[in-house]
Amino acid sequence: MYLEILTPEKKIFEGDVTIATFPGENGSFQVMDNHAPLIGLLKEGVVEYKSSKTASENLVITGGVVEVLKNKVILLADGVK
Question: Bridge partners of 74?
């Protein structure tokens, strides 16, 4: 699936990943290939994503919104730490 991580200032990441974990308002959740469509609110916490070519990468966000639709995931982060 394709993941984009954006803040108001810049694009943080763009590329194919196999799994992504987000700090949801009601607990963390994971998204994998062909996930059902969803929009979720995120709280401050760690976003973890992994591509087939690299090890897991972590990013701490201050909150935001994530959208999953047609194997594309867009994370609009309020900010990163």
Answer: 4, 67
Query: Any idea where the domains of the chain sit in the sequence?
Result: 2-77
CA distance 71 to 81: 27
CB 73 within 8 A of CB 15: no
Distances (CA, A) of 5 to 2, 12, 20, 30, 73: 10, 5, 11, 15, 8
Q: Chunk the chain into consecutive blocks of 10 residues (it has 81) and report each block's average pLDDT, rounded to whole numbers.
A: 97 95 96 96 97 87 98 97 91
> Is 52:18 a contact under the CB 8 Å cutoff?
yes
pTM value is 0.93
In the block, which residue shows the tokens 């867009």?
74
Task: Look up the CATH number of domain 2-77.
Answer: 2.60.15.10
SS3 17: coil
